[in-house]
Specification:
By secondary structure, the protein is an alpha+beta fold. 11% of the residues lie in helices and 29% in strands. It has one domain. The two termini are 15 Å apart.
């Protein structure tokens, strides 16, 4: 399955976002900030383009690998 998301917002390349820090204790964990990490983890391919003021994010998922996740 391929999902393409486009918007006219500020340029944002999710491939450049550093991985989130791994807390050493549960009370150090913060809520939120894992969206890009989860996309990169579950998608088999993630591509980004910025063309004519448009962000285009293309996510590819191998549904056979997702069997049993739902």
């Amino acid at each position: 399955m391929t999902i393409t998301i486009e918007d006219h917002g500020a340029a944002f390349d999710p491939r450049e976002v550093p991985p989130p820090p791994v807390p050493s204790r549960i009370d150090e964990a913060v809520i939120g900030g894992l969206g890009v990490h989860l996309m990169r983890h579950f998608a088999q391919d993630l591509a980004y383009q910025r063309l004519d003021g448009v962000n285009r994010l293309i996510l590819r998922f191998d549904l056979a690998k997702a069997d049993g996740l739902c």
